[in-house]
Design a protein that fits this description.
This protein is an alpha/beta fold. It has one domain: 3-Layer(aba) Sandwich (Rossmann fold). The protein has three helices and ten strands; from the N terminus they run E-E-H-E-H-E-E-E-H-E-E-E-E. The chain has a six-stranded mixed β-sheet. Strand 1 and strand 2 form a beta hairpin. Helix 1 crosses helix 2.
Amino acid sequence: MNDLTVLDKKFRPFIGAERIDKAVELMAEKINADYADENPFFIAILNGSFMFASDLLKKIKRPCNISFVKLSSYQGTKSTENVTTLIGINENIEGRRVIILEDIIDTGITLSNFLEVIKAHKPKDVRLATCLFKPNAFQKAYKIDYVGMEIPNDFIIGYGLDYNGYGRNLPDIYKITE
């Protein structure tokens, strides 16, 4: 992994693809154990979670469903703290065990708003799984059930995460150096 420039920002290597894969594998093992006799319904939050969701579901050993929603709260390198639903949930999840998949949880505002939307659909229960978690940025009090890795409160790209739409395709994660 080498340093790189995306648009007007410079980034350095932070987390390699092998380390990400190991964290996803450990998370899948926990979910497989927790849902050993059940068929969970996964809801992945686009755009960022597409790589994480794909890698995780390849490791889930139970029959399951997946759907996608698209929420927006970032502009450039900052959260706007305003969450917009661009594509919502269309499936019937009433009485289902739901696992929401997020690429990263930082402030927690995006998921806090979305949790209220999901609860209105009357699932049996809802759990949260995130590839990356920034505990020092987290402003909410809800429980995150599955965490791949805790990271500092730095702006990052790669593995689904972007800077103004660029960098999502990178298999590794990079930290901004500006």
